[in-house]
Amino acid sequence: MTETAIELVGVNKWFGDFHVLKDIDLTVGAGQKVVICGPSGSGKSTVVRCINRLEKHQKGTIRVNGTELRGDAQTIAAIRSEVGMVFQQFNLFPHLTVLDNLMLGPVKARGLTRAEAEKTARHYLARVHIPDQADKYPGQLSGGQQQRVAIARSLCMEPRVLLFDEPTSALDPEMISEVLDVMIELALDGMTMVVVTHEMGFARKVADQMVFMDAGEIVERGAPEEVFAAPKSDRCRKFLSQIL
Ligand code: ADP
Ligand code: MG
């Protein structure tokens, strides 16, 4: 039996009076890849942000590697050390070199020496195919390279799970595939991944489970080939017809 990496049961969240997540149930096994799609404003970012506690849910349970996500600082720190996140807008420090961006977390949060952190950083820079960019500043790199640095930065923390929130949406079209290729390699290596994306080619290649959200609900889920071939709901069919 596959170990469960992430489990959401009956998760609800409100922003003030606005019911943004409605009874979300989601199970991600260790090594599985889940792709979440759906219209803008449907709650996709909020779901992934709740998984590493960038947002707080008010009802239901979230467990990550068996630990229930509660409000105490110790649990939050433990979850953050196991769950990496890659954002649409890279979020690199512009005044630090690529190498220093990658070394910061491991030195501050994981207690590595600078020498150890540099070794780890160079290892993951090579893994995202830009070993020669270590001494540049983020502003000197293309968007696709910056996003690969952001992925390497997450990997330097040795996470057990990686969350991606529309990682290619801010990129020029010609740079999308270089980022998706790195994500596909991670997927094939067995990383547990939850990916919010509208890149349906990526979903077809790697997703074990596709989830379609609309208005704060999971409206449909299944293997990608099932969801693409025969969406059960009108909302999902309409959405797919707009993006495919
Ligand atoms: P998606 O990622 O699917 O586009 P989000 O999860 O970002 O959707 O947002 C879902 C809904 O919640 C949207 O209507 C958005 O405006 C609202 N929302 C998101 N963040 C906040 C916030 N911090 N405060 C109030 N409303 C928010
Ligand atoms: Mg979003």
TrEMBL record:
Family matches, as CDD domains: ABC_HisP_GlnQ
The UniProt record lists the keyword Iron-sulfur: no
ABC transporter domain: residues covered: 6-240
Xref: InterPro entries: AAA+_ATPase, ABC_ATPase_HisP-typ, ABC_transporter-like_ATP-bd, ABC_transporter-like_CS, MetN_ABC_transporter-like, P-loop_NTPase
Pfam family, one: ABC_tran
UniProt keyword annotations, A-Z: ATP-binding, Nucleotide-binding, Transport
GO MF annotation terms: ABC-type amino acid transporter activity; ATP binding; ATP hydrolysis activity
Family per similarity comment: Belongs to the ABC transporter superfamily.
Name this protein carries in UniProt: Amino acid ABC transporter ATP-binding protein, PAAT family
